[in-house]
Write a structure and sequence with these properties.
Number of helices: 10
Structural class: alpha/beta
Pfam families: HNH
Bound molecules: zinc ion
InterPro entries: HNH (IPR002711), HNH_nuc (IPR003615), P-loop_NTPase (IPR027417)
Keywords: Endonuclease, Hydrolase, Nuclease
Helix content: 40-55%
Distance between the termini: 47 Å
Largest sheet: 4 strands, parallel
GO molecular function: endonuclease activity; nucleic acid binding; zinc ion binding
Protein name: HNH endonuclease
Strand content: 5-15%
Length: 227
C-alpha cells in the first residue's frame, strides 16, 4: 500500500493498530462511503483524508487524528485512490473572482495531493524565483506560454492528474464561459464585495508595500466584471 518504508512502519505501529480498532469499535463495521457491511474487521481500511507522506506521518494531528480517518471498504478505497482501472473521472474547476476574494485559499482547502493547479501567480514564482506578488512584466509571454500549455493539457485531459483547478480573475462573462466550455470545467465564483476585498488588502502583510498596485487590480476587476 505504501511506497515509503517510513509509511509502512507507521501502518504496522501499535499506535495505528489500536487507533484503527478503537475507531471500528466506535463507528461499527459499515463502510463510511457506501454503507456496505464489512464482514471481517481486517477488511476495514482506515483511509487518511489528508494523504500520509513521509513529511506528515509524524504529525499525530494528521496520522492519528480520528477526524482525518475514514473507515471504508476495499472497493471504495480503490475508488478514492483511483486504482486498478477505476476510471477516476478527471474533474476540472475554474475558480474565479476579484483579487483578495480567497480563490487560492479555497483551492488549497478543497484540492487533494495529485491534483493539477494552474495559477498565473504561482507560475510567475516558479520561473522568476520572486514572491508571488512580484510579477515582472518582461516575463509575461513566457509565463502565459506555460499557462496555456497547461490549459491545453487540461482540455485534452493529458496526463495522470486527478482533478484540475484553474485559478484566475476571469471578470468577463463571455471569456469565462468560453474557457469553462473548452476546459469542460465547473465554474466556482468566489463572491466578495469590493469593500471587503479592499479591507482584506489593507490587512494583508505580504502586499503591504504594493497596496496601490493591488487596489488597482481590485478596481479593474469590478469595472470589467460581467455576471
Ligand atoms: Zn464502501
Ligand atoms: Zn487511503
Amino acid at each position: 500500500m505504501a511506497k515509503y518504508s517510513i509509511l509502512k512502519s507507521f501502518y504496522k505501529s501499535d499506535e495505528w493498530t489500536s487507533l484503527r480498532l478503537s475507531l471500528i469499535n466506535e463507528r461499527g463495521n459499515r463502510c463510511e462511503r457506501c454503507g456496505k457491511i464489512i464482514a471481517k474487521s481486517r477488511d476495514i481500511i482506515g483511509h487518511h483524508k489528508i494523504e500520509l507522506t513521509p513529511e506528515n506521518v509524524h504529525d499525530h494531528n494528521i496520522s492519528l487524528n480520528p477526524n482525518n480517518i475514514e473507515l471504508v471498504c476495499f472497493d471504495c478505497h480503490n475508488k478514492i485512490h483511483r486504482r486498478f482501472g477505476y476510471s477516476g473521472k478527471k474533474e476540472v474547476f475554474l475558480v474565479y473572482g476579484p483579487p483578495m476574494s480567497g480563490k487560492t485559499t479555497f483551492v488549497r482547502q478543497n484540492m487533494e495531493r495529485g491534483d493539477l493547479v494552474v495559477d498565473m501567480d504561482q507560475l510567475y514564482s516558479a520561473v522568476s524565483m520572486l514572491p508571488y506578488y512580484d510579477k515582472p512584466d518582461n516575463l509575461f509571454s513566457n509565463v502565459i506560454g506555460i499557462h496555456n500549455l497547461l490549459l491545453d493539457n487540461i482540455k485534452t485531459r493529458y496526463g495522470r492528474w486527478h482533478n484540475a483547478w484553474v485559478i484566475g480573475g476571469y471578470a468577463d462573462k463571455y471569456k469565462r464561459e468560453r474557457l469553462a466550455n473548452e476546459l469542460g470545467a465547473e465554474l466556482i465564483f468566489m463572491e466578495c464585495e469590493k469593500e471587503e476585498c479592499l479591507r482584506r488588502l489593507e490587512l494583508d502583510e505580504e502586499r503591504r508595500y504594493r497596496k496601490d498596485e493591488w487596489a488597482k487590480y481590485i478596481e479593474k476587476w469590478f469595472e470589467t466584471f460581467t455576471e
